[in-house]
Design a protein that fits this description.
This protein has 102 residues and is α/β, with parallel strands linked by helices. The chain has 4 helices and 5 strands, in the order E-H-E-H-E-H-E-E-H. The protein has a 5-stranded mixed beta sheet with strand order 1-3-2-4-5. The chain is globular and about 30 Å long.
């Protein structure tokens, strides 16, 4: 499954009501490290249909970025059963991201 663009308009329906573990990638187009991690996140989305992988552009969705207290990007947030279970900023390897999801 491909990544889903998450906005304030679809957040509740797509993320909070998901039966899958959710990985949210908070990013921006001008962020170099975000561009470095993007292919890894995309690969995880394609290879792991058991997870819902969402992308949140912090410039387009400042309310969501504020709600998640995003101070640095990229930031990855793992949500399970509507609760944040992991939150980490910076560039991470595929293996490290998969461990966050486990």
């Amino acid at each position: 499954m491909a990544e889903v663009v998450i906005t304030k308009n679809n957040f509740e329906e797509v993320v909070m009501k998901s039966e899958k573990t959710v990985l949210l990638d908070f990013w921006a187009t001008w962020c170099g490290p975000c561009m470095m991690i993007a292919p890894v996140v995309e690969e995880i989305a394609k290879e792991n249909p058991q997870y819902l992988v969402g992308k949140v552009n912090v410039d387009d969705e400042p309310e969501l970025a504020g709600a998640f207290e995003i101070e640095f990007i990229p930031t990855l947030v793992v949500i399970r059963d509507g609760k944040i279970v992991h939150k980490e900023s910076g560039v991470h390897s595929k293996e490290a991201i998969l461990k966050m999801l486990a």
